[in-house]
Design goal:
Strand content: under 5%
Structural class: mainly alpha
Number of domains: 1
Order of helices and strands: HHHHHHHHHH
Helix content: over 70%
Distance between the termini: 29 Å
């Protein structure tokens, strides 16, 4: 039976932490997304014909939303766990009646909560610009939560590995950001040469963006079954990895 009180406490702690620095955690990503929407919707989008039966901004918006979800989830999990390591607050979690699976759920769930807050705010901005449609709300929520969970677990791995504050951004800077921009969030792979399109299909971020886009505007360029396998496979693999690291006490037991 899950430790519901303990998990609720971890979730509430993340909400309080998020609201304590609300400008950094909520306002900044919303402003950033609004700038993307303005540039691609008002400035560039009006010069581009409708794509897949929808305005260009509606095609781009899911990728902008995904980018914000990834950043929020990764930053939440990595900073949360790293600061707990730094202040030895992780020892309170280790002596609490938590199983390793509950530790995973607590850290990942907390990051997902923050990501959902960011996603809802950006959706509100998108509605103001007329960029939002939801053809499959349930699918949208599942994709958002799965993607947030994936990057929360990546954030946990980085937080365990990092020996300094600057190392928290290494994966984000050199892996996540490049793969995100090369994953088709601002363009259709039909615009690419065949070789480049085939390479893009090897990028898991392509399936993240395509999943959210298909649930919002009903247009998909990827094989949906392959995308689901990639996303579910990453959730399971990273969940196993993080749980194993917790069990071994890697860099959290001294």
């Amino acid at each position: 039976m899950l430790n519901r009180i303990g998990l609720y406490t971890m979730f509430r702690r993340e909400v309080v932490r998020t609201m304590r620095v609300v400008v950094q955690t909520l306002v900044a990503p919303v402003i950033s997304a609004a700038l993307y929407i303005f540039i691609f919707g008002t400035v560039i989008g009006t010069k581009i014909d409708d794509f897949a039966g929808v305005p260009y901004i509606s095609f781009v918006f899911p990728g902008v939303l995904m980018l914000s979800i990834i950043n929020a989830s990764f930053a939440s999990a990595s900073s949360n766990l790293y600061f707990m390591r730094f202040t030895r607050g992780i020892e309170e979690i280790l002596i609490a009646p938590f199983s390793y699976l509950e530790m995973l759920i607590g850290f990942v769930g907390s990051a997902v909560v923050r990501s959902m807050m960011v996603a809802l705010l950006i959706l509100a901005v998108g509605f103001l610009f007329g960029a939002v449609s939801l053809v499959n709300p349930i699918g949208f929520m599942l994709y958002v939560m799965a993607i947030a969970a994936i990057f929360a677990m990546l954030g946990i791995v980085v937080a365990l590995w990092a020996e300094g504050f600057e190392q928290l951004q290494v994966l984000n800077t050199f892996v996540i950001t490049p793969l995100t921009y090369l994953g088709g969030i601002f363009y259709s792979i039909t615009f690419l040469p065949e070789l480049a399109a085939q390479i893009t299909r090897l990028n898991p971020f392509f399936y993240f963006a395509d999943g959210i886009r298909s649930s919002m505007i009903g247009y998909s360029e990827a094989n949906t079954q392959v995308g689901i396998v990639v996303i579910v496979g990453l959730v399971v693999l990273l969940g196993w990895l993080v749980t194993t690291l917790f069990k071994r006490g890697w860099k959290i037991r001294y």
